[in-house]
Amino acid sequence: MDLLKARYVTHRFSRHVHDGYAIGVIMSGVEEFDYRGARHRAGTGSLVLVNPEHVHTGQAGEPGGWAYRMLYPSIEVMSGIAAELAAGRGTPHFPEPVVSHPHAAALLRAAHDAAEHGDGLASSTLARTAFGALLRHHAAHRTADARPAREDRAVRRAREILHERLVDPPTLEDLARAVQAKPFALIRAFKAVTGLPPHAYLNTLRVRRARGLLDSGTSAAQVATDVGFTDQAHLTRHFKRVVGVPPGAYQRAGTYKTASENRT
Hints:
The protein has two domains: about 1-145, Sandwich (Jelly Rolls), CATH 2.60.120; about 155-255, Orthogonal Bundle (Arc Repressor Mutant, subunit A). Helix content is about 45%, strand content about 20%. The radius of gyration is 19 Å and the shape is globular. It has helices spanning about 75-85, 100-115, 120-140, 155-165, 170-180, 185-195, 200-215, 220-225, 230-245, 245-255, and strands at about 1-10, 15, 20-35, 40-45, 45-50, 55-60, 65-70, 90-95, 100, 140, 255-260. GO terms for molecular function: DNA-binding transcription factor activity; sequence-specific DNA binding.
Protein backbone atom coordinates (compact mmCIF):
# COMPACT_ATOMS: atom_id res chain seq x y z
CA MET A 1 0.00 0.00 0.00
CA ASP A 2 1.39 3.37 -1.03
CA LEU A 3 1.50 6.31 1.36
CA LEU A 4 1.91 9.93 0.32
CA LYS A 5 2.92 12.80 2.59
CA ALA A 6 2.77 16.08 0.69
CA ARG A 7 2.25 19.81 0.79
CA TYR A 8 1.03 21.52 -2.37
CA VAL A 9 0.60 25.19 -3.17
CA THR A 10 0.48 25.58 -6.94
CA HIS A 11 0.16 21.96 -8.07
CA ARG A 12 -3.12 20.91 -9.66
CA PHE A 13 -4.05 17.26 -10.13
CA SER A 14 -5.63 16.56 -13.50
CA ARG A 15 -8.78 14.44 -13.79
CA HIS A 16 -7.74 10.92 -12.90
CA VAL A 17 -8.79 7.71 -11.16
CA HIS A 18 -7.18 5.22 -8.78
CA ASP A 19 -7.69 1.47 -9.02
CA GLY A 20 -8.01 1.40 -5.22
CA TYR A 21 -9.23 3.83 -2.55
CA ALA A 22 -7.62 7.18 -1.76
CA ILE A 23 -8.00 7.89 1.97
CA GLY A 24 -6.29 10.75 3.73
CA VAL A 25 -6.30 13.40 6.39
CA ILE A 26 -5.81 17.13 5.74
CA MET A 27 -2.99 18.31 8.00
CA SER A 28 -3.28 22.03 7.21
CA GLY A 29 -4.91 24.38 4.73
CA VAL A 30 -7.75 23.48 2.36
CA GLU A 31 -7.90 21.04 -0.54
CA GLU A 32 -10.53 21.60 -3.21
CA PHE A 33 -11.49 18.84 -5.62
CA ASP A 34 -14.11 17.94 -8.21
CA TYR A 35 -15.70 14.56 -7.62
CA ARG A 36 -18.99 12.93 -8.64
CA GLY A 37 -20.36 16.05 -10.30
CA ALA A 38 -19.68 18.51 -7.48
CA ARG A 39 -16.84 20.56 -6.03
CA HIS A 40 -15.79 19.71 -2.49
CA ARG A 41 -13.57 21.42 0.09
CA ALA A 42 -11.67 19.63 2.83
CA GLY A 43 -10.13 21.70 5.61
CA THR A 44 -7.69 20.95 8.41
CA GLY A 45 -8.59 17.76 10.27
CA SER A 46 -11.03 16.54 7.61
CA LEU A 47 -10.82 13.10 6.08
CA VAL A 48 -10.97 12.65 2.29
CA LEU A 49 -12.53 9.39 1.07
CA VAL A 50 -12.33 8.71 -2.67
CA ASN A 51 -13.72 5.46 -4.07
CA PRO A 52 -11.92 3.30 -6.67
CA GLU A 53 -12.29 4.19 -10.36
CA HIS A 54 -14.00 7.53 -9.59
CA VAL A 55 -12.69 10.52 -11.51
CA HIS A 56 -11.48 13.40 -9.36
CA THR A 57 -9.13 16.38 -9.39
CA GLY A 58 -7.25 18.25 -6.65
CA GLN A 59 -5.98 21.77 -6.09
CA ALA A 60 -5.44 24.34 -3.36
CA GLY A 61 -8.62 25.78 -1.86
CA GLU A 62 -6.83 28.81 -0.40
CA PRO A 63 -3.63 30.75 -1.28
CA GLY A 64 -1.45 28.86 1.20
CA GLY A 65 -2.27 25.49 -0.32
CA TRP A 66 -2.77 22.33 1.69
CA ALA A 67 -0.83 19.53 3.32
CA TYR A 68 -2.12 16.00 3.70
CA ARG A 69 -1.25 12.41 4.37
CA MET A 70 -2.80 9.87 2.02
CA LEU A 71 -3.06 6.08 1.99
CA TYR A 72 -4.10 4.01 -1.03
CA PRO A 73 -5.54 0.63 0.06
CA SER A 74 -6.74 -1.79 -2.60
CA ILE A 75 -10.31 -2.96 -3.06
CA GLU A 76 -9.23 -6.38 -1.78
CA VAL A 77 -7.81 -4.92 1.43
CA MET A 78 -10.91 -2.87 2.21
CA SER A 79 -13.33 -5.65 1.28
CA GLY A 80 -11.37 -8.05 3.47
CA ILE A 81 -11.51 -5.71 6.46
CA ALA A 82 -15.24 -5.15 5.94
CA ALA A 83 -15.86 -8.91 5.79
CA GLU A 84 -13.77 -9.53 8.90
CA LEU A 85 -15.70 -6.88 10.83
CA ALA A 86 -19.05 -8.04 9.41
CA ALA A 87 -19.46 -4.42 8.34
CA GLY A 88 -21.48 -5.29 5.26
CA ARG A 89 -21.45 -7.47 2.16
CA GLY A 90 -20.27 -6.48 -1.28
CA THR A 91 -17.74 -3.85 -2.24
CA PRO A 92 -17.59 -1.02 0.32
CA HIS A 93 -17.93 2.53 -0.91
CA PHE A 94 -18.02 5.90 0.80
CA PRO A 95 -21.09 8.04 -0.08
CA GLU A 96 -19.52 11.22 1.37
CA PRO A 97 -16.08 12.28 0.10
CA VAL A 98 -15.32 14.59 3.05
CA VAL A 99 -16.07 13.51 6.63
CA SER A 100 -15.05 14.34 10.18
CA HIS A 101 -13.75 11.50 12.34
CA PRO A 102 -11.02 12.73 14.72
CA HIS A 103 -10.12 9.27 16.04
CA ALA A 104 -9.62 7.77 12.57
CA ALA A 105 -7.67 10.88 11.52
CA ALA A 106 -5.32 10.44 14.49
CA LEU A 107 -4.83 6.77 13.62
CA LEU A 108 -3.96 7.62 10.01
CA ARG A 109 -1.42 10.22 11.12
CA ALA A 110 0.12 7.72 13.51
CA ALA A 111 0.25 5.06 10.78
CA HIS A 112 2.19 7.48 8.58
CA ASP A 113 4.60 8.35 11.39
CA ALA A 114 5.24 4.66 12.08
CA ALA A 115 5.90 3.98 8.38
CA GLU A 116 8.32 6.90 8.24
CA HIS A 117 10.28 5.33 11.09
CA GLY A 118 10.27 1.88 9.51
CA ASP A 119 7.87 0.28 11.98
CA GLY A 120 5.82 -1.89 9.65
CA LEU A 121 3.91 -3.71 12.38
CA ALA A 122 2.71 -0.51 14.02
CA SER A 123 1.94 1.16 10.71
CA SER A 124 -0.14 -1.72 9.37
CA THR A 125 -1.96 -2.14 12.69
CA LEU A 126 -2.85 1.54 12.96
CA ALA A 127 -3.90 1.81 9.33
CA ARG A 128 -6.11 -1.28 9.53
CA THR A 129 -7.74 0.02 12.71
CA ALA A 130 -8.43 3.37 11.02
CA PHE A 131 -9.91 1.70 7.95
CA GLY A 132 -12.14 -0.43 10.17
CA ALA A 133 -13.48 2.66 11.93
CA LEU A 134 -14.18 4.38 8.63
CA LEU A 135 -15.93 1.33 7.22
CA ARG A 136 -18.13 0.98 10.29
CA HIS A 137 -19.14 4.63 10.46
CA HIS A 138 -18.99 6.00 6.92
CA ALA A 139 -19.24 3.19 4.35
CA ALA A 140 -22.12 1.67 2.45
CA HIS A 141 -21.96 -1.49 0.35
CA ARG A 142 -23.04 -2.41 -3.11
CA THR A 143 -23.18 -5.80 -4.76
CA ALA A 144 -21.46 -6.32 -8.08
CA ASP A 145 -24.66 -6.14 -10.13
CA ALA A 146 -25.65 -2.81 -8.52
CA ARG A 147 -22.60 -0.83 -9.57
CA PRO A 148 -23.46 2.47 -11.24
CA ALA A 149 -21.34 2.08 -14.37
CA ARG A 150 -23.33 -0.14 -16.73
CA GLU A 151 -20.97 -0.56 -19.63
CA ASP A 152 -22.43 -1.20 -23.04
CA ARG A 153 -20.63 -3.63 -25.28
CA ALA A 154 -18.82 -0.98 -27.36
CA VAL A 155 -17.28 0.78 -24.34
CA ARG A 156 -16.29 -2.48 -22.73
CA ARG A 157 -14.51 -3.62 -25.88
CA ALA A 158 -12.89 -0.19 -26.36
CA ARG A 159 -11.43 -0.37 -22.86
CA GLU A 160 -10.10 -3.86 -23.56
CA ILE A 161 -8.39 -2.61 -26.73
CA LEU A 162 -6.74 0.28 -24.90
CA HIS A 163 -5.47 -2.10 -22.22
CA GLU A 164 -4.09 -4.41 -24.92
CA ARG A 165 -2.55 -1.62 -27.01
CA LEU A 166 -1.02 0.60 -24.39
CA VAL A 167 2.10 1.33 -26.44
CA ASP A 168 0.53 1.55 -29.91
CA PRO A 169 -3.06 2.71 -29.39
CA PRO A 170 -5.42 3.07 -32.36
CA THR A 171 -6.75 6.38 -33.57
CA LEU A 172 -10.23 7.32 -32.43
CA GLU A 173 -11.59 6.41 -35.84
CA ASP A 174 -9.92 2.99 -35.79
CA LEU A 175 -11.08 2.38 -32.23
CA ALA A 176 -14.66 3.27 -33.18
CA ARG A 177 -14.56 0.94 -36.20
CA ALA A 178 -13.19 -1.88 -34.05
CA VAL A 179 -16.15 -1.63 -31.67
CA GLN A 180 -18.70 -0.86 -34.39
CA ALA A 181 -19.56 2.62 -33.17
CA LYS A 182 -19.44 6.16 -34.50
CA PRO A 183 -16.50 8.24 -33.17
CA PHE A 184 -18.53 10.96 -31.42
CA ALA A 185 -21.00 8.42 -30.05
CA LEU A 186 -18.08 6.40 -28.65
CA ILE A 187 -16.57 9.48 -26.98
CA ARG A 188 -19.90 10.28 -25.28
CA ALA A 189 -20.52 6.70 -24.17
CA PHE A 190 -16.94 6.20 -23.00
CA LYS A 191 -16.97 9.36 -20.93
CA ALA A 192 -20.38 8.48 -19.45
CA VAL A 193 -18.98 5.15 -18.21
CA THR A 194 -15.42 6.04 -17.17
CA GLY A 195 -15.64 9.78 -16.57
CA LEU A 196 -12.82 10.32 -19.07
CA PRO A 197 -12.48 10.46 -22.87
CA PRO A 198 -10.49 7.59 -24.40
CA HIS A 199 -7.16 9.46 -24.67
CA ALA A 200 -7.24 10.59 -21.02
CA TYR A 201 -8.24 7.09 -19.92
CA LEU A 202 -5.25 5.72 -21.85
CA ASN A 203 -2.85 8.08 -20.09
CA THR A 204 -4.27 7.02 -16.72
CA LEU A 205 -3.62 3.39 -17.67
CA ARG A 206 -0.07 4.28 -18.67
CA VAL A 207 0.61 6.02 -15.37
CA ARG A 208 -0.80 3.06 -13.47
CA ARG A 209 1.46 0.67 -15.38
CA ALA A 210 4.40 3.05 -14.90
CA ARG A 211 4.00 2.92 -11.12
CA GLY A 212 4.32 -0.85 -11.16
CA LEU A 213 7.44 -0.73 -13.32
CA LEU A 214 9.05 1.97 -11.17
CA ASP A 215 8.31 -0.13 -8.08
CA SER A 216 10.17 -3.03 -9.72
CA GLY A 217 13.27 -0.86 -10.21
CA THR A 218 12.96 -0.06 -13.93
CA SER A 219 14.50 3.28 -14.86
CA ALA A 220 12.17 6.16 -15.67
CA ALA A 221 13.55 6.43 -19.21
CA GLN A 222 12.82 2.76 -19.88
CA VAL A 223 9.41 3.01 -18.22
CA ALA A 224 8.46 5.85 -20.57
CA THR A 225 9.19 3.60 -23.55
CA ASP A 226 7.53 0.53 -22.04
CA VAL A 227 4.20 2.25 -21.36
CA GLY A 228 3.98 4.22 -24.60
CA PHE A 229 4.99 7.77 -23.70
CA THR A 230 7.09 9.54 -26.33
CA ASP A 231 9.92 10.32 -23.90
CA GLN A 232 10.76 10.68 -20.21
CA ALA A 233 9.55 14.30 -20.11
CA HIS A 234 6.15 13.15 -21.40
CA LEU A 235 6.01 10.47 -18.68
CA THR A 236 7.02 12.98 -16.00
CA ARG A 237 4.35 15.48 -17.00
CA HIS A 238 1.49 12.99 -16.89
CA PHE A 239 2.84 11.08 -13.88
CA LYS A 240 3.03 14.18 -11.71
CA ARG A 241 -0.45 15.33 -12.74
CA VAL A 242 -1.90 12.02 -11.49
CA VAL A 243 0.42 10.86 -8.69
CA GLY A 244 1.56 14.26 -7.42
CA VAL A 245 5.31 13.57 -7.55
CA PRO A 246 7.76 13.04 -10.44
CA PRO A 247 8.71 9.44 -11.33
CA GLY A 248 12.23 9.81 -9.91
CA ALA A 249 10.99 11.03 -6.53
CA TYR A 250 8.37 8.28 -6.46
CA GLN A 251 10.98 5.62 -7.13
CA ARG A 252 13.54 6.97 -4.65
CA ALA A 253 10.97 6.98 -1.87
CA GLY A 254 10.32 3.24 -2.21
CA THR A 255 7.16 2.14 -0.41
CA TYR A 256 6.84 5.41 1.49
CA LYS A 257 6.16 8.22 -0.96
CA THR A 258 6.96 11.79 0.11
CA ALA A 259 6.69 15.05 -1.76
CA SER A 260 6.90 18.78 -1.26
CA GLU A 261 5.67 21.55 -3.53
CA ASN A 262 6.06 25.32 -3.26
CA ARG A 263 5.29 28.38 -5.31
CA THR A 264 8.44 27.99 -7.39
